[in-house]
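Human:
Care to share another protein and its fold?

Assistant:
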Amino acid sequence: MLGELRALQASGTTMGHVHLQVADIPATETFYKDVVGFDLQARYADQASFLSAGGYHHHLGANVWNSRGAAPPPPGSAALRHFVVLLPDDAALGQVAERIPDAAPDSSGGIAVKDPANNALILAVDQKD
């Protein structure tokens, strides 16, 4: 089971959910559902998907409203640099990492990956206080 999304922008900041602009809903949904492990909560045809962990209405939204078929933003442009998905333990992190052949260790101790729209995310173990 997945944990929560957490932003690394400010120490201690936790994001309740993240919305992504993506190029393709089916590819994005497959990645976040079948590879990362989120549950699909809602789908709006081929326009948007909302996924979560633990039955919450959504932790992750993805849509093509401004980005259907678009290439990722060029380097240096204003864009989301990455977000962090916290998993409950090392075993869960290892299980997800096994499903992502191009996953790479991150300097924070997590695993850096990219989704089909080239959005960067870090998978890490939740270090509960």
Residues 3-9 have pLDDT under 50 and may be disordered. The chain is about 15% helix and 30% strand. Residues 25-36 form the longest helix (12 residues). The helical segments are 25-36, 90-98.
